[in-house]
Design goal:
- It is a single chain.
- The protein is 24% helix and 29% strand.
- It is an alpha+beta fold and 126 residues long.
- The strands form two sheets. A four-stranded mixed beta sheet has the order 4-3-2-5. A two-stranded antiparallel sheet has the order 1-6.
Length: 126
């Protein structure tokens, strides 16, 4: 899979939406929709990205800043994506450590976890 072919913005100081852990994917999607409305940026919207979007974003951010998104500064937490991995699971990206690199795993879309958040991406509206 390829990452999206557009500009993507994040808020590194608040990568994850507060309180978005321990939620289902649907609940997280609702939170991102509200976040998008509250942004009120003409021509842009907030979304939950695909797995390759977060992988490329973490790599690019590290190359440019030396800081690992999803690393120690971010509690080694994961961002849920909308990328299906089989059954009711979707991919999650996180736990970016120096020894093992960036982690990609799957999680049931109808189940939340303490370290499984949503990290909205701000992208141009189609």
């Amino acid at each position: 899979m390829k990452s999206r072919l557009s500009e993507v913005a994040i808020f590194p100081k608040q990568l994850f939406l507060p309180g978005s852990n321990n939620k289902t994917l649907k609940q997280q999607q609702d939170m991102v929709e509200k976040f998008s409305r509250d942004l009120n940026i003409q021509g842009a919207e907030a979304i939950i990205g695909e797995m390759p979007d977060y992988v490329e974003l973490a790599s690019t951010h590290f190359d440019e800043t030396g800081v690992r998104l999803f690393g120690k500064d971010y509690g080694f937490d994961y961002a849920r994506t909308i990328t299906p991995t089989g059954g009711t699971d979707v991919a999650s990206v996180g736990h970016f450590c120096a020894d093992d690199g960036l982690g990609v795993c799957d999680w049931d879309r109808d189940d939340g976890g303490g370290g499984l958040f949503v990290a909205p991406l701000v992208v141009p509206k189609p």
